[in-house]
Amino acid sequence: MNVVYYFDELIVSEIKKKNEVALRELYKTHYPMIVNLVRSNNGTEEEAKDVYQEAVIAFYEKVQQQGFVLTCKIKTYLYAVCRRLWLKRLAEKKRYHGNIEETETFLGIEEEMSTIAENENKFASMRESMSGLGEPCRGIIEDFYIHDLSMEAISEKFGYTNADNAKNQKYKCLQRLKKLFFAKYKNEDLS
Asked: Model's pTM, two decimal places?
């Protein structure tokens, strides 16, 4: 099951019509993310602008192709393309010492897009599973893993007699979450 936001569908629809306003909106929306990517990886804002323009042009051309279907968020697509282009430029400038083609970490764009889309689906399934978990389980898991509370603090907050009892409850909650997640994830794989 591919999750694509309404905004993305609207942008793609308008770009297919060669709407320049939609293209400018797309450009403005995701530009800061790419500047951050390039600047935090030995680049300048000018280099980020070049890479981003190249990625947006590639996206525009892809959208114009007959039968184009968006299978992930536009943001995901642009990030993957820009990351790939930036790594290639770093390699050309000898500022990146790996071999992009041979390194498992740097997959081709299509493989990377597939991996990212799969991860997005897993995160969506996990969010749904967490929301279906109910209290006190959701609260215990969030407090421990997200808010970094100790078992003693969780024990006090939820009224358990000691940290060991809270730890046992957390284990049971994790088992329930695991069951919910895999049930949802398997169902999404089948659809």
From this structure: 0.51
